[in-house]
Amino acid sequence: MKKDGEGNKVQRKWLLLCHRLERFPRSCGASLFIAGTMAEENGCGNNNKTMQVKSLNKYLYLSVAAAVVTILLKCYAYIVTGSMGLLSDALESFVNLFAAVFALIMLRLSQKPADKGHEFGHEKAEYFSSAAEGALILVAAFSIIWSAVPRIIHPAPLENIHIGLFFSMVASVVNLVVGILLIRNGRKRRSFVLEADGKHLITDVWTTAGVIVGIGMVKITGWLLIDPIIAILVAVNIIYTGYTLISRSASGLMDATIPEEDLQKIRNYLGSLQVKEIEYHSLLTRVAGQRKFISLHLLVPGEWTVKQGHDWADKVEETIIGLFDEPVTVSTHIEPVDDPASMEDIGIDRVMPQHYP
Question: SS3 of 336, please?
Answer without folding.
Answer: strand
